[in-house]
Amino acid sequence: MVVSIAPYCLSFSQQTCNSNYISKHIALSKYRRDIRRGCLRRPQILPSTLGDAVGLRVFVLSDLHTDYTENMEWVKCLPTVRYKNDVLIVAGDVAETYKNFIVTMSLLKDRFEHVLYVPGNHDLWCRHEGEIYACKDFKACKWSKELSNGDISLALYFDAMNEKNQSVIKEIQNTCNQIITFSHFVPRQELCPEKRMLFYPKLPKIIGSDCLEFRIRSIHGVEGSPSACHVFGHTHFCWDSVLHGIRYVQAPLAYPRERKRRMNGGDKWLPFCIYSHGKFSDRLSPCYWSDYYSTNPRTPHNTQLAPWVARFYNQT
């Protein structure tokens, strides 16, 4: 098997198997939900069955946030031998400080043969300690005058950086049948819960751009394919769904408080083995929000707050 590695793109020359990685949808009504302090306690995701397979394995992980002591300890506790021949995709948000970033990436490189990484917003912050913002991205990042948070100029600027890789991408498309792309930011609004479901309702405005989705489609094809997969991060919601022919996966470690509520599906399933022995893994299960939207249509015109969100704002 030949493995081609390019920035933000991992591909394989072996023909994909007709695997049933999209398992039967699990209805949200089957989940047992505990309401604790106005928050839902979500089910624990099961580890990938490919995690113990032989051959080339690709694991995915995002949003490590190792500035939290608990998260750094989680990384340190990863086995030092088990992943020695494997690839790890890190979809951004490793740490906010240079020291923690270097320590974390060194620990990961000691455990995996290859570590592929794309920066997240937290990795790029130049923040001043003690300052508090509703969303630090608007204050912690400084842009030149021609770039603005108020329009799509930033998205266009960063998307244009991918143009220099077109020759490499063309070569991969011509020689490989299985391609994994990855980003930190979210390429589609459908990969995030609706505004009324969120404690922070402005989240959908700062998670990604249409430019990213167009770029992904230029690699995988407008219609996608059974072997097209994109890994992302940023929102801390575990996610696994197929939209218009592309499988979208998020496997976040997230913040300690979010793991306690299993907002990210817990931590026993991480890092997630998405590819092994010539095939992609079965679908993440149970995967709270993507399972929900597999059986419930999005209702953007519905402005009624979800019960847990309404309780939260009534308390405050």
TrEMBL record:
A Gene Ontology molecular function term of the record: hydrolase activity
State the coiled-coil residue ranges.
Answer: none
Superkingdom in the source lineage: Eukaryota
What would be one Pfam family of this protein? Metallophos
- In this chain the Calcineurin-like phosphoesterase domain maps to 56-138
UniProt xrefs under Gene3D superfamilies: 3.60.21.10
Q: Which residues cross the membrane?
A: none
Family annotation (InterPro entries): Calcineurin-like_PHP, Metallo-depent_PP-like, Pantetheine_PDE
The name under which this protein is listed is: Calcineurin-like phosphoesterase domain-containing protein
Please give the organism.
Prunus persica (Peach)
